[in-house]
Amino acid sequence: MQYIIIDLEWNQPLSHQSSIFRRVGDRLMFEMIQIGAVKLDEQRRMKGSFSRLIAPEHYLKLHPRIRRITGITQEDLSDAPRFAPVLDQFIDWCGEDAVLLTWGSDDISVFQQNLDFFKTKKELPKFYDLQKLYCAVNKDGKDRKGLSAALNFYGIPVTDEHPFHNAVDDAYYTALVFQQFPDARAALNHPETARQLGKTRNGKREASEEKAVKSERGYFSSSFGKLIPCPVCGKKGHAHEGYVIHRGIKTALADCPDHGLMYAQVTFNDNEEQLIAKRRVYLSDEQNPAYVTTKHLQWQQKATVQKRGKSL
Ligand SMILES: [Zn+2]
Predict the structure, then answer these.
(1) What is the pTM for the complete model shown?
(2) Is 156 part of a structural domain of the chain?
(3) CB-proximal residues (5 Å) to ion ligand 1
């Protein structure tokens, strides 16, 4: 058996109001732009790697946030082949008797939706979830451990040679974690199935909630403040980049794995008895490219300010 550790990157629409999203969004929420993979043999020895960019055919403009996280540029994608030939190469490269291993279950859902959307007849090997296996092996009550937590746990350093958040390098680190598990075959106990990704069915695109807090600072450092619930499905996304002030209001961005970019705005109301934090969360429907560009600049400034030893 060959173990293929895979990691994908995908693009998302700049706006859910765009004509292209209105046309294809219920069938293509996210469009794949990179496949990274590492191959291990039965004894979990590394046998090769696969890394291909894919030119998007629908969400042509790379979302600034995806660019920032992955380091992929618009120019990189313009020279890349399309989905169908890359898929053929990938399936050939996987070879016979292969299984696909991922960290978490988002990749299979996005991959399956791209396969269906592009009407490919190709069948992928079966998917298994290493994150679930890791959590089963290292029981501490949490079922969604990040890859970086697993790297820390096993004392695996992240090196400049393999920068984090590049698909093939993330697959490489996932493979290093996989090599640490006592029993490789135990991965086969955690099969994955694709979730249906789609536009919001009920039209709900925003939600708000209130919470009594001791202080503003306490709110932003609490897990409640850092984890932003999707207004559609309730899944929580991490506000990795923190909150920044936009038009006088603290705002943050986070991802829902099924519904894409969300943004949150938090205001405080001191009614003398207690301090109430009110948070509104919107799907990126309201988002326009100018807003994202503004945010992008703000984060760069924030990073610079922090380097000077000040905090926002
Ligand atoms: Zn959601």
Answers:
(1) 0.74
(2) yes
(3) 230, 232-233, 235, 256, 258-259
